[in-house]
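Support reply, case 0932

Customer input (verbatim):
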Amino acid sequence: MNVNLDKIIEISINILNEEGIKGLSVRKIASRLNIKPSSLYWHIKNKEEIYNNISSKIYSGIKVSENITDPRKYLFELNKQYRRELRKIKDSTEIIKRSQNVCSKRLEYYKVTFICIKNMGIVEKYCLTLANMMNNYVLTFEENSGNSKRTDNDDQFYFGLERIIKGCVIKIRKITITSFAVRGEG
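Our regenerated output:
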């Protein structure tokens, strides 16, 4: 078997889907690749690098575009894709938490989320906080769902996402109006 980083990540994801994060070990990965654990370190530095690469794979499955006509609808579609990618890998939320990776695809997710939020009329200084809230909501919802492939809780997911969007828009616009009024600008 030809060993390369892609094959290591593929095997790692197979192990995750079969046994969860507790079953993922360098020894097990090496065994499935028919190599010694020490040989695996020729391709990776440590287990964290495996987490980082799996995290990159998750975010790579999210197709982003900067051609956004309706930011609210786009946020729903973006986070629907994010949730779908998380569901493909058992314990994916834990992988994301353990990864130190700020891959380009993860940054794209945040960038387009930021742009959508800003295009909805939110003051720019709050956009990154709200983008983090959305990311954390998706991760927490999936974690609490046990990364299941259930679809019977989709309505709950969308209800919560909509409340975040509406609540933030109302709160931030209220803060903005109040700030302008206090400064005599509105």
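We compared this against your earlier run and they match. Two observations from our side: The chain has two domains: 5-44, 59-182. The mean pLDDT is 86. Please reopen the case if you see a mismatch on your end.
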